[in-house]
Prior knowledge:
The structure holds two protein chains of two kinds. Chain A is built from 13 helices and no strands. Chain A is an all-alpha fold. The two termini of chain A are 47 Å apart. Chain B has a two-stranded antiparallel ribbon. Chain B is globular and about 75 Å long. In chain B, helix 2 packs across helix 13, helix 8 (187-212) packs across helix 10 and helix 10 runs antiparallel to helix 14. Chain B has helices at 2-10, 38-66, 85-92, 94-126, 132-144, 147-157, 164-171, 187-212, 216-224, 229-257, 261-266, 278-288, 292-318, 320-331; strands at 69-70, 80-81. The longest helix of chain B is centred in the first third of the chain and has 33 residues, at 94-126. Chain B has a domain at 91-143 and 186-328: MetI-like (MetI-like fold, Orthogonal Bundle), CATH 1.10.3720.10. At the A-B interface, helix 1, helix 4, helix 5, helix 6 and helix 7 of A face helix 1, helix 2, helix 4, helix 5 and helix 6 of B.
Amino acid sequence: MSVATRRARILRGTGYYTAAFVTLVFVATPILFALLGGFKDNQQLRENALGLPSPWNVSNYTQVLASDTFWRQVFSSVFIAFVTTFIVVACSAMVAFVFARFAFRGRELLFTLFAAGMMFPFAVAVLPLFIILRSFELLNSPLGVILPQAAFGLPLTIIILRTFFRSIPGEVEEAATIDGAGPWLFFTRILLPMSRPVLATVSVLALVGSWNSFLLPLVVLQKPTWWTLPLGVTQFSGQYASDTARVLAFVMLAMLPALIFYAFAERHLISGLTSGGTKG
Amino acid sequence: MGGRGVTLKASPPASPAVGRPDADAGMRPRRRPGRPGAGTLATFIVPGLVLFLLFVLLPVLFAGYVAFFRWNGLGGVPTDFIGFDNFRTLIGDEVFLGDLWRIGIIVVLSIVVQLPIAFGLAMLLHQRFPGRTAFRLLFFMPYILTEAVTAVLFGLIFSPRRGFADSLLAGLGIDAQIGWLSDRSIVLFVVFGILTWKFFGFHMVLFLAGRQNIPDELYEAAAIDGATGAQAFRRITLPLMGPTVRIIVFLSVIGTVQLFDLVYVLTGGGPFHASETLAITMFEQGFQRNQIGYASALSIAMFIVSLVFALIYQRYVLSRDLQGSITTAGGVR
């Protein structure tokens, strides 16, 4: 190996790192601003915007963590996300099972109907949805958020699950049938346990979608009782507009669950979130 | 594997007259014990179907209906039928036309600035070097954050009262008071910058997946034939990334048409509609001014814009992918 190619390799390596680090600074700066800003007070934020906090001031974080509102919003977000996920995955799995394993008249038509749901942007439906939910008396109820979210999650979940269910060999089903298992038993005892990876993927999609959802809760939850974190953060930032440090602490704490989840389940999260992009 | 499937498929149709083994015509009288009847199938489908009909199809159809009325949303159902008037108003509505114009600007900026950056970083992170996994994880991170929360954070960063962005510039020796979110001529670019921050990692991961799907053999063959790295990139990587690029452009356009959370929390569409999106206009008309009919017309317009784009794009751009990718792959000598 000549000196020239070695030098070229080192040069290229330096180039890689430079580009990667420049991007990293771009990505990390806003988040570090929130994290560190939460440890400053407002005077420090004005006079020492770029430096580390001195002294480190934990009162912003502790005040948010000590407030009932914050925890209630965390609970609402978690509750709505989990119930939404359960409903959308359960309903989709049953529908996808039938689409994948049985032939009957009108199957393709029905599947196309569900798949067509992918074409409707959620914002198109939000106004009539509001009117419908109002007449069902579901405004200000978590169900008013959960049911439409689950419904809009159906198309993609069904498409992903159907593809996977189809790939399970017919012999498995034959064997179960011979052993006397009906469709319910086959579905709950064999198909679902075999599908754990893809169920994890679609659950992640549903969880993240619900966790981040804003427009629907904004419209449905007019009273603060069931406010989710995104609503809470926007409301808090308006209420404490002059107390930037405290808003930053709230913002950081609101981002934290997603960041922790990401740190532990990044593989599922990335493959789940991008599967919508590649399969849809 | 394949052999087993064939024998199984071959056994059920006893008579050659039955074409598809799955077609149940002619084999009605209980082909297999335990084959579920219509009732069982229905119990599986009904919960999902009811949910879908009530909360997806019904609202969308309802929007299509209400768009032809003047209605303030009160009193059961709309009664004041006005035909296409809402749509006529829409075509002359400067805010609506501005929304379309701003979608165009953001789409063009995305294609010219954001997607090339994401593409370049994907190529970079495809190389093996220590730490690349960590970089990939960190670059994807903004995508997992809630849009509304991100918007609050950037609202403080670009705050008019000497926000963090101003302090950063001051730290670099530039002492300018820039109205990041209050100046009509730059607010859209600030929004675009934040969108880039939030979404480039997502696009990068999609590009990366596309790049990893290109078989290494192609590059080995090219290297044996004496191709340089740059030639391999131009003749193999670029053409074979085509389908991925086209899908990402598609996703990014559809996403832009539906943009709401981030901009609504950040600017509310202002100042003077300078950062307004279709969804924000619809939201304002419907929920703040109670022009339910007109807002419905707006949502139908939003649907039509996405649909027309999707159809045209699929017809003229995505349709090439099936043949295109194979022929270009075959074309690499």
